[in-house]
Amino acid sequence: MKKILSILLLSIVMIGCKTTANKDSAGTTSTISTEEDLKYYFKGTGNEPFWGIKIGNEEIVFTSLIPGKEKIVFPAVDAIRAMDANVKMYKVSNETTSATITIQQLDCQDSMSGAISPYSVKVEIKNNSELEAKKLSGCGKYLTDYRLHDIWVLEELNGYKVFATDFQKEFPRIEINSAENRFMGYGGCNSITGQIFYEKDLLRFTKVVSTLMACPQGNKEGEFLKALQSTTTYSIGNNQLTLLNPSGKLAVFKKVD
């Protein structure tokens, strides 16, 4: 009987922790949340007292150990952006509470674990009946869109369908690891690797490095890499990834297994 109960308990734990394990071509396994976390694009936490913030397209949720502020849900609002730095401010309120949340791109070290996050977070929060706001500091990060985590093969480049004759061996492809914000692949002549920079509605391919094999005349690898590095945003639908910037559509990829 005890053995049966143990098996049932283990099953409940496994069901309650629904995550997807993905293994890239290098053999690295990454765990990606597939449920509640996908509602939010940014998470921040702090200590003394412990608190957390989750920012999504529909709501902003503040939790803490502060009496009277254990969990507060605000309607989502657009960020107020600084002109000269990567700083965003959210001014939120509901029937009982108001808060100002400031996110700055700045390396931030957790005061307890020592972990480094790419953004610092400041929260000023108060009940509407209070005169002074509680000021809190912590660290945070954007949660890269899990749908990017796949292998994508090029179909269109700068508005035109690509053909095998445009490249040396095979169509360019990119394999994105959204958990680690990096990518690898093939540019049409050389192997390529790099990092991705992700924020809400923003995607950039950075620190792109390729091998130095000489490409035959007419190979469009250079055009492909330029499009990749000119990307500022994206869309996903019908198993396709489209890379764009303010000038328009740059590249279209097809998802492959």
Would you kindly provide a written description of the structure presented here, covering whatever features stand out?
The strands form three sheets. A nine-stranded antiparallel sheet has the order 6-5-4-3-11-10-9-8-7, with no helix packed on it. Strands 12, 13, 14, 15, 16, 17, 18, 19 and 20 form a nine-stranded antiparallel sheet that branches. A two-stranded antiparallel ribbon has the order 1-2. 9% of the residues lie in helices and 52% in strands. The chain has two helices and 20 strands. The chain is mostly beta strands.
Helix fraction bin: under 10%
The helix tally amounts to: 2
Low-pLDDT runs of 5+ residues are: 1-33
| End-to-end Cα distance | 43 Å
Identify the strand order in the major beta sheet: 6-5-4-3-11-10-9-8-7
Name the average pLDDT: 88
Gyration radius, in Å:
22 Å
How would the global form be characterised?
elongated
Number of strands: 20
| N-to-C SSE string, H for helix and E for strand | HEEEEEEEEEEEEEEEEEHEEE
Percent range for β-strand residues: over 45%
The major beta sheet can be summarized as: 9 strands, antiparallel
Structural class: mainly beta
Entry summary:
The protein is mainly β. Helices cover 9% and strands 52% of the residues.
Explain the layout of strands and helices.
Elements: H1 2-16, E1 19-23, E2 29-33, E3 40-46, E4 51-56, E5 59-64, E6 71-75, E7 80-81, E8 87-93, E9 97-109, E10 116-127, E11 134-142, E12 151-157, E13 160-161, E14 173-177, E15 182-186, E16 191-199, E17 202-210, H2 221-229, E18 233-237, E19 240-245, E20 248-256
Antiparallel strand pairs: 1-2, 3-4, 3-11, 4-5, 5-6, 7-8, 8-9, 9-10, 10-11, 12-13, 12-14, 12-20, 14-15, 15-16, 16-17, 18-19, 19-20
